[in-house]
Amino acid sequence: MSGSLGRAAAAALLRWGRGAGGGLPGVRAASSGVGGGGQAEQLDALVKKDKVVVFLKGTPEQPQCGFSNAVVQILRLHGVRDYAAYNVLDDPELRQGIKDYSNWPTIPQVYLNGEFVGGCDILLQMHQNGDLVEELKKLGIRSALLDEKKDQDSK
Amino acid sequence: SSLPLLHCVHRMFASQTEGELNITHVLKEKFPRATAIKVTDISGGCGAMYEITIESEEFKEKRTVQQHQMVNQALKEEIKGMHGLRIFTSVPKCL
């Protein structure tokens, strides 16, 4: 599958300290201002507000962690430009709150259609086995990799 | 003194760090039907980050995220001391 990440390439992605974001239109690197009572409800609303929601260390333009960067780059590969990205480094309550909410101990966290999908390992696996293209399709998002493949087939 | 040299030799030939051994032990207990368990310290022996590969029929018919959750739960205490971890789960192919 064109654009698929081999093990070595995936390992390289994780080593990148800074993302090669370079202007991602439609991405809201929002600060959620989460805290206090009803945090679970607030987070629930947050993950359901957009089709694709990610919690990162850093921003899509400047990920501060290799795993968060991997998530950003995979979404970029699929041409997903309109997604909500929340930087847990901006907000310690969010950082702990989202882990409590999903009962998942690590960041990044990926939510599709309000549902927790997993971290970067799972997203990578979904990317490699074609599941991500399918899940995006269910959300009405056409993966850019489908167009890439189409071009290749027609040559 | 020969102690540092002995320590070096031990590390060179020791197949696993204490942390790796401990985590493997916990996983063996929590996943008694696991057919393969591999724990690797990927933080240069610092115990900060681990890569865990585990194959077990206990994962059968569970979504990947649920399989990973089972591992998270099993290693709840150990994870508190980690900076990060990578998990790869699978179901045995031949039963």
Automatic annotation (TrEMBL), chain A:
It comes from the Eukaryota. Gene3D superfamilies: Glutaredoxin. Keywords: 2Fe-2S, Iron, Iron-sulfur, Metal-binding, Redox-active center. SUPFAM superfamilies: Thioredoxin-like (SSF52833). One of its GO terms (biological process) is [2Fe-2S] cluster assembly. The keyword Glycosyltransferase does not apply. PROSITE patterns: GLUTAREDOXIN_2. Residues 52-117 form the Glutaredoxin domain. The keyword Aminoacyl-tRNA synthetase does not apply. One of its GO terms (cellular component) is iron-sulfur cluster assembly complex. GO terms for molecular function: 2 iron, 2 sulfur cluster binding; metal ion binding. Homodimer. Interacts with ISCU. Interacts with BOLA1. Monothiol glutaredoxin involved in mitochondrial iron-sulfur (Fe/S) cluster transfer. Receives 2Fe/2S clusters from scaffold protein ISCU and mediates their transfer to apoproteins, to the 4Fe/FS cluster biosynthesis machinery, or export from mitochondrion. Required for normal regulation of hemoglobin synthesis by the iron-sulfur protein ACO1. NCBIfam families: Grx4 family monothiol glutaredoxin. This is Glutaredoxin-related protein 5, mitochondrial. The gene is Glrx5.
From TrEMBL, chain B:
InterPro entries: BolA, BolA-like_sf, Mt_Fe-S_assembly_factor. Keywords: Mitochondrion. GO terms for cellular component: mitochondrial matrix. It is found in: Mitochondrion. It comes from the Eukaryota. It holds the Pfam family BolA. Interacts with NFU1. Acts as a mitochondrial iron-sulfur (Fe-S) cluster assembly factor that facilitates (Fe-S) cluster insertion into a subset of mitochondrial proteins. Probably acts together with NFU1. Belongs to the BolA/IbaG family. This is BolA-like protein 3. The gene is Bola3.
